[in-house]
Amino acid sequence: MIITGNWYNNKMKHFLFKKQTVFLYGLFIILIASPSYQQDEDTQKKINTVIDKGVQFILKKGLKGRDLELEVLTLLQAGVEPKKNQELAQALNKLNTSNLTSVYNTALTAMALELADRYHYQYRIAECAQALVDAQCANGQWTYGCRYDKNNKNSAPKVLTGKPELIEVITGLSSPSSKPTISVEAKQKEPDKPLKHLEVKRNIEPKKRIPAGDNSNTQFALLGLRAAARSGVTIPKETWQEASDWLVKNQVGDGGWSYGSEQQEARSSYGSMTAAGLCGLAIAKFYLKQDIKNDPAIQKGLNWLAARLVFDANPEMADAFTRDTGESGEGWRHFYQYYYIYGVERVGAVLDLKNIGNHDWYAEGAQYLMTVQNPKNGSWNSTEDDKMIPDIPDTCFALLFLSRATPILKAAQSADNEKKKGD
User: Fold this and answer.
1) I need a labelling partner for 156 at 20 to 30 A (CA). Which of 36, 54, 167, 235 fits?
2) Residue 284 falls within a domain, yes or no?
């Protein structure tokens, strides 16, 4: 899924570091609701109706073009079954065979296939992981492009003996989902054959890696690598470590995150990038087996977000534009607003938070989204001009928030710990 347009050249050439802006956004799986997060029955029915209208909008538009990965992920998350929808089945097949040339698309492909069937698509998910590992920049970030040559056996994922080490709880994972249209039993049923143990390695020499990237691509690369790790693919520790080191180093003094790197001028924090920094850092540190609940950088980022949490704008976006460009930020409050809203869901979910500061983030966000959905067609859009930010990605982000798409990060207990627990 790629969002581009002529609006960039006219309105953003002094912002986001004079490169074409590409937005891809990622998703995960619906699991059963945690009782402490459940809405009252009447509210839940309203949310479900809103979700259904949004799904119908996407289906009527058709699965095509550069938003394909995002659309597939959203529909799978909402419970649309490939066996009952031929267009979705065909789209999944395309994801299983298409070239892996973009970090965003590659990450979303891994996430979609992990959601659809991590057992059936395991090797393809590992190929996505290999492409992402080799696309990491020298400073630990990711940028737009990636490369994977499926014909090069030397750089292909390796099949190892034995069972994979699953760092994260998978089966029976409880995530605060608002609409459990896909049951844990159906989605997480153990197959006849267990996951193979696959491994990817770093094939690109440090001196040949791109120097730096951006924090949006970085977040999605880490989401894609998480999907691979959940599918039995071992990711190099160095990959997690370099990403973690970068996100800690790049955190702005106020606790938030910006879009770019130290080589770029724009260094002001704003909502969507702070959510991206928090989510990415939590994933990287989790897979380094570090304590993400009490991590000082994560706590500082949460404090930034809690102090500015709103849903009718992308916090600090307009001010960041003004500070970083010297131009007026008027009209920028709503840019990437739904990307930010989905970012809030990811932060709340991966850290298993009912509240961010004093905010019941899900209740507030759901109420806002129910209020602003287009009553005519079921879509959402943060701008009046669909050419600026198309309604498909905004609608997908809204649906991902409402369906609480992101599973929490919960560490799997080791066999030794399980044995002690049973003694």
Assistant:
1) 167
2) yes
What is the number of domains present in the chain? 1
Using an 8 Å Cβ cutoff, are 58 and 395 in contact?
yes
Instruction: Residue 67: give its domain's CATH number.
Output: 1.50.10.20
Beta strand spans in 144-223 (E): 158-160, 197-199
Half-sphere exposure of 205 (CA within 13 A, CB side): 2
Which SS3 state, helix, strand or coil, does residue 298 take? Answer: helix
**CA distances, 165 to each of 162, 235, 273, 378 (Å):** 9, 11, 31, 42
CA 21 – CA 15 distance, rounded (Å):
10
Nearest-10 Cα torsion for 283, 289, 290, 292: 40
22 versus 41: the higher-pLDDT residue is 41
Q: Are strands 197-199 and 233-234 parallel, antiparallel or unpaired?
A: parallel
Whether 5 is in a domain gets the answer: no
Residue type, 59: L
Per cent of the chain over pLDDT 70 is 80
Position 185 pLDDT exceeds 60 = no
> Stretch 243-247: mean pLDDT, rounded?
97
Nearest to 248 by CA among 299, 289, 202: 299
State the pLDDT at residue 171.
Answer: 47
User: Strands 233-234 and 158-160: what pairing?
Assistant: unpaired
> How far is Cα 209 from Cα 146, in angstroms, rounded to an integer?
11
Q: What is the pTM of this model?
A: 0.85
Distances (CA, A) of 58 to 226, 361, 391, 405: 26, 25, 10, 17
**303-336, pLDDT tens digit by residue?**
999 999 999 999 999 888 888 888 877 777 888 9
Average pLDDT over residues 229-240: 97
Residue 4 in domain: no
The more confidently predicted of residues 66 and 34 is: 66
Q: In the chain, helix, strand, coil percent, each to 5?
A: 50, 5, 45
Pick from 133, 123, 128, 140: nearest CA to 201 = 133
Q: Which residue has the higher pLDDT, 388 or 309?
A: 309
Domain of residue 325 covers: 25-422
For residue 8, pLDDT beyond 90: no
On whether the CB atoms of residues 361 and 372 are closer than 8 A, the answer is no
What are the strands of the beta sheet with 233-234, ordered from one edge? 158-160, 197-199, 233-234
Q: What is the token pair recorded at 43? A: 């509210």
> Which has more pLDDT, 207 or 292?
292
Alpha-carbon span 99 to 140, nearest angstrom: 24
